[in-house]
Amino acid sequence: MRRLHNILGLALLICALPGCSPVAAVDTTARPVTAPAKPAVNQSNGNLAVLAGKFKNANRAPVTIIQFGDSHTAADLFSGEMRRLLQAQYGDGGIGLVAATPVPGTRYEQVILKAAKRQWELVSARNQQSAQFPLGGYLSVPLAAKPGVRIEAREPSSQRYRVSALYQAQESTSLLLRDPRGQNRRLLAATGGQWRFGPVVNNLGLPLDLTLDSRPGTVLGGWYLQGQKNAGVIYSALGINGARLEVTDKWQPGWQDTLKSLRPDLVILAYGTNEAFDDTLDLNLYQTQLKQTLERLRRDLPRAVVLIVGPPDSIKQRKARSCAARQPQQLAAVIRIQRQAARQANALFWDWQAYMGGQCSIAAWQAQGLARGDLVHLTADGYRKSAAALHDYLRTQLKLN
């Protein structure tokens, strides 16, 4: 393992693979745009009525949404706008699962993670190896006896949270939690080599300081922040820059148990850009991987709705003469495979490229200030406009007013 540098700021956001360029100048202050017209996509899903009922009763019980994805998710602009729109109508159920310590190139729409230097080593499933990766793909290893993390709100808020640690411990240890009202200490029992959520600490506000009483074999995987009322929408954004669908294969066996423990009502898979930019991608293997992933989700979460978000439009060869030649070589095939897999698994599929206007439409989006100059990623307005369209599509599928 190598020691990673601290976050360099939003200017370092995003990317790993060719064709997934940094979004250095994302404007996070831009206002959300008006929701666009509804896409003409209609699919059936046996669990849609269940999810619709959950939303209608969100004032009494939480609706849990977990989005997995690549750099489009890691910026938490697209998912952040989805979270804002859903919570505005159905209640703020909390932020969901975030990494345990700061992750270079990754941000969260509602909170900022801070940690002092030389207190933690971050190991990422993006480009490192470990047999311990948890749900989400980030592993924080203590380097000091009592390493600390601070969680701050991006905007002033009176929201209160129920907080628990995702951790693994060879022997029992403890966690100290301090907010402006006081402090609490909780025992983190030994986990026998498995990932576990620690005891929930109620009625905490931000900023929140967390100090781990480190013991050999203790590592952290994240923090789960639920609203104190235990109702409303909880929306976790689990994005890794440069990730493909196969990144979950690097996570420790049993991570699905962690996912199940969160009881997600909606699981969103938002991969595809990095696959599309790989000219050597084995399409048959990718099709098999996606099919197996959907089968596993159906088996583990039989009552949940699964939604595949196709990759947005992008351009790889700017100087090519034809639109087809400018596109990533595998983009059309990846979208086709995703659509077919969703249909076969009775999952939903939202065609992001089609919503944008089809092949090479990102050039027009860039001209309107909705896409970055790399012609791969969108601006804050572009992501929020796209999220508004996905939100509209989801409400149509659920037949919500």
UniProtKB/TrEMBL annotation:
It holds the Pfam family Lipase_GDSL_2. GO terms for molecular function: hydrolase activity, acting on ester bonds. Residues 230-384 form the SGNH hydrolase-type esterase domain. It comes from the Bacteria. InterPro entries: Ape1_N, SGNH_hydro, SGNH_hydro_sf. Keywords: Signal. Residues 93-203 form the Peptidoglycan O-acetylesterase N-terminal domain. Residues 1-25 form the signal peptide. This is SGNH hydrolase-type esterase domain-containing protein. It comes from Pseudomonas alkylphenolica.
